[in-house]
């Protein structure tokens, strides 16, 4: 049951931290008693696969993180940079 939910799980509302908590809980429920390293790998993979912002997802995927903590920190950093870049973009490069 949890594995089916996990396969189709995409970040909805809420931030990346909420998404990380949600996905970690679901992966742990779907892999009871599994090897810790395998579970961590599955958590990172599911987290990255479900990030709704495709640019953030791609950037995080390229680093091949081994822990959710690393992947989340990187995703937050990329999201912040993207937000600040768009916010301070010169007016002539913005699309209206």
Automatic annotation (TrEMBL):
Superkingdom per UniProt: Eukaryota
Protein name: Uncharacterized protein
Protein species of origin: Papilio machaon
């Amino acid at each position: 049951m949890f594995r089916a939910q996990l396969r189709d799980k995409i970040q909805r509302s809420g931030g990346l931290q909420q998404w990380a908590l949600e996905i970690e809980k679901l992966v742990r429920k779907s892999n009871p008693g599994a090897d810790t390293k395998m579970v961590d790998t599955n958590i990172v993979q599911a987290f990255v696969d479900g990030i709704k912002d495709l640019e953030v997802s791609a950037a995080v995927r390229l680093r091949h993180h081994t822990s959710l903590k690393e992947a989340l920190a990187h995703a937050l950093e990329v999201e912040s940079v993207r937000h600040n870049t768009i916010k301070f973009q010169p007016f002539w490069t913005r699309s209206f």
